[in-house]
From TrEMBL:
An example molecular function term from Gene Ontology annotations: 4 iron, 4 sulfur cluster binding
InterPro entries: 4Fe4S_Fe-S-bd, 4Fe4S_Fe_S_CS, EFR1-like, Flavoprotein-like_sf, PSI_iron-sulfur_center
Annotated protein name in UniProt: Ferredoxin
Lineage of source species: Bacteria, Pseudomonadati, Bacteroidota, Bacteroidia, Bacteroidales
Keywords: 4Fe-4S, Iron, Iron-sulfur, Metal-binding
UniProt key word Iron: yes
Occurrences of domain 4Fe-4S ferredoxin-type (ranges): 185-214, 215-244
Keyword 4Fe-4S: yes
Length: 263
């Protein structure tokens, strides 16, 4: 078990998806792990995966997988490679996202062996209106580790018995939920607070933020995917994102939801 090669592919602007993927990997207790962080960068050439399992983890935006995450995943091809497919969502619903991610990976040659939907702090969460604040918490992490242990055991048993891998069935439907029209918007900047430290530039997954003449931070609304990574990473709290949807989420999705699994 400890000699198993495990690859982890994550798109995780605010860290929740990467956290869950790493905890699942911990539970699998494998000795050889390679991580592919496609949050900002992607391989320059196509990557062909081997026979060892691959963990793929991404967030849910509006019940779907972000288009840019799916685009970057096109760089990876499986050869009947078993995949542990994970999504994280902000305590509302993951709708068709898990199925969408499984379907895309299947088209690229992977075989979804197991899948899970976990809760992570919503991108729109604030101190005043918390939405799944602090998640994944320790209970979520422990659950992820137990899931990982179960997955590696299941996979090993199938390998030893020489069973053919078959796709799992997950929640979701096709055609997928229709995505809402893109409304250009980006976080606002409090120029008096901003120190031009560059933290927001470092975390933006779409390179929508740039420094102009070393004096001003510019955000391209057309490129912004509203992940709010820049808002959460700003050490001076100089960035904010205002949306009426925050109040709706805060008022209607406060009851704690728990992870769901498919094996």
């Amino acid at each position: 078990m400890h000699n198993t090669q495990l690859d982890i592919i994550t798109f995780s602007p605010t860290g929740g998806s990467a956290c869950i993927a790493n905890e699942v990997a911990r539970g699998m207790e494998v000795g050889n792990i390679k991580t592919w962080n496609i949050t900002k960068e992607i391989p320059t050439e196509q990557v062909c995966m081997g026979q060892g399992p691959v963990i793929v983890s991404a967030p849910v935006y509006g019940g779907r997988i972000p288009g840019i995450a799916l685009e970057r995943l096109q760089k990876f091809n499986g050869e009947r490679t078993p995949a542990i497919v994970l999504v994280t969502y902000g305590n509302r619903d993951y709708e068709d996202a898990l199925k969408e991610l499984c379907d895309v990976l299947t088209q690229q040659g992977f075989v979804p062996l197991a899948a899970g939907a976990f809760i992570a702090e919503h991108s729109y969460s604030t101190q005043e209106m918390p939405i799944a604040q602090g998640r994944p918490d320790e209970a979520d992490k422990e659950t992820a580790r137990r899931f990982g242990a179960q997955v590696i055991t299941t996979w090993r048993k199938k390998e030893e018995a020489k069973y053919n891998l078959s796709e799992i069935q997950v929640k979701g439907s096709f055609p997928y939920k229709v995505k809402g029209a893109h409304t250009p918007q980006a976080p606002s900047i409090d120029q008096e607070r901003c120190t031009l430290c560059g933290a927001c530039l470092d975390v933006c997954p779409t390179h929508a933020i740039s420094l102009i003449d070393d004096q001003n931070i510019f955000s391209d609304q057309a490129l912004c995917i509203k992940c709010c990574a820049c808002v959460k990473s700003c050490p001076e709290e100089a960035r904010s994102f205002e949306t009426p949807f925050r109040k709706y989420l805060f008022e209607n999705f406060a009851v704690r939801k728990e992870p769901e699994f498919f094996l």
